[in-house]
Design goal:
Layout (H helix, E strand, L loop, with lengths): L4 H18 L4 H21 L6 H11 L7 H15 L12 H18 L4
C-alpha cells in the first residue's frame, strides 16, 4: 500500500520537463492546477487526520500537471464515484489504497480533456 515519494518526485520532475519542452506557453496554467489539487489533497489529509498518505498528496500535484483547472472537478468526481462503488462499506473505518482511484480519475479526466479540446 505504499508508493515511494521519490517516485512521485521523479514523475513530477519529468512532467515539468515535458511541459517546458513541449508546451512552454501553457505551462503556468498547469502549475496552478497542480497547486490547487495538491493543496486540496493536503487539506483532506489534515481533515481526515492522515487517512490519505503523503504519496496521495504528491500524486495530487502530479495529477494537476496534466489537467486544466476546469477538469479538476471531473477528475475528483471520477475518483469519488469509483471509490464509493468499489469500496461498498464504511470508508471511515478502513484504510484502502486511493492511488488506483486517483490514477483512474486522472486518465478519465485527461482523455475527456483531450477529446473535448479543453486545453486552452
Amino acid at each position: 500500500m505504499e508508493v515511494g515519494v521519490y517516485i512521485q518526485w521523479a514523475s513530477i520532475f519529468c512532467a515539468l520537463i515535458c511541459h517546458i519542452v513541449f508546451a512552454r506557453h501553457e505551462m503556468w496554467i498547469f502549475i496552478i492546477s497542480s497547486m490547487i489539487l495538491g493543496a486540496m489533497y493536503f487539506l483532506v489529509r489534515k481533515i481526515t487526520r492522515g487517512k490519505l498518505g503523503p504519496a496521495d498528496v504528491w500524486f495530487g500535484f502530479f495529477q494537476g500537471l496534466f489537467l486544466h483547472p476546469l477538469m479538476l472537478w471531473v477528475c475528483l468526481a471520477i475518483e469519488t464515484v469509483l471509490a464509493l462503488v468499489v469500496e461498498n462499506r464504511k470508508i471511515g473505518h478502513q484504510k484502502f489504497p486511493f492511488i488506483p482511484y486517483m490514477a483512474a480519475g486522472l486518465v478519465g479526466a485527461y482523455l475527456l480533456q483531450v477529446f473535448r479540446g479543453t486545453i486552452f
